[in-house]
Structure of Carbonic anhydrase:
Amino acid sequence: MKFSTVILLLSVSICQVYGGHRFGYSRAEQRMWSRTHQGCSGKYQSPIAISSGKAIPLTMPALEMVGYHNLLPGPILMHNNGHSVSLSIPKHTKEEVEGGAFMPYIFGGKLKNEYEFEGLHFHWGDKNNRGSEHVLNDIRFPMEMHIIHRNKKYANVSEALEHPDGLTVLAFFYQLIENDGSELQNLVRNLPHIREYNQSELMNTTFSLSSLLGNLDTERFYTYKGSLTTPPCSEAVTWILFPDTLTVSVSQMSKFRHLSNGVEGSVLVDNYRALQPLNNRHIFVRKVNIKSTPLEGLNKEISYIKWDWLY
Ligand SMILES: *[C@@H]1O[C@H](CO)[C@@H](O)[C@H](O)[C@H]1NC(C)=O
Ligand SMILES: *[C@@H]1O[C@H](CO)[C@@H](O)[C@H](O)[C@H]1NC(C)=O
Ligand SMILES: *[C@@H]1O[C@H](CO)[C@@H](O)[C@H](O)[C@H]1NC(C)=O
Ligand SMILES: [Zn+2]
């Protein structure tokens, strides 16, 4: 994928209304989640451990990422909500998007609908051997990015959370490298401005989602039905995880680890939820065909049928 150009916008600090909800990640605190949010003790929770050998290979359409190469309709709002760094496009911007710009959306894979970009955030560790929420073949990566998409048939995220097909989250793992990659640089540069809990900033640059993904291979992915990994843990998420990894440098990683979580003298690290039981769910892995066959259309329908009996 191609890097985006970066355009200058404005630099204003504003505050965000939602996301003020507090919860902690210590073992004891995570056990409390289900006391305040019944959803967190559900049977189809996330994250989970994925093992490539146990995933069911399935023929399904490629994931189409529409508008991922376009610059996001800015300005992009960056927020330290005390449990992550989140990026989103303020609501008023969405309604005033000019010149035919649109929010990126995805379809394909096992998705039956189009899902529109809502925002993204990260999970990371205090040490390099932890941080990702999902575990792939026993590996816990130092960081995981979640790009959240809402089913277009629902008006907003709160409504989408009420439905099993409400959201799709694309999950990307990071590996540590020595030198700064350009993919995260825009974002990391602004982290010091949102060091404190509940600080927000409108970035003076915008970028495309594909600029965050570099040359990542999106052909092969795992998919399963699960939940939000934070309260209220709604079982509304189709997860799509990519085994190909993105990169983050040691120095970029340390900027994430310097953010405050709002507790005096404490930093925002290890914001990942404990692994949840798979129970009777299946994890599918997309079979990547060397060359596509005329049967592709037929296979699509078959794979959709298999999906439904789970719910
Ligand atoms: C976060 O900031 C917003 C805007 O300043 C404010 O309305 C809200 O009360 C703050 N939330 C917390 C939990 O401090
Ligand atoms: C979400 O959409 C529903 C249905 O249109 C509406 O009733 C609700 O007020 C909206 N919620 C938010 C937070 O915008
Ligand atoms: C944009 O933001 C960056 C990082 O905060 C800053 O270094 C730069 O000077 C800003 N540029 C303008 C034109 O405001
Ligand atoms: Zn997340």
Helices lie at 27-36, 91-95, 157-160, 185-190, 209-213, 250-257, 296-308.
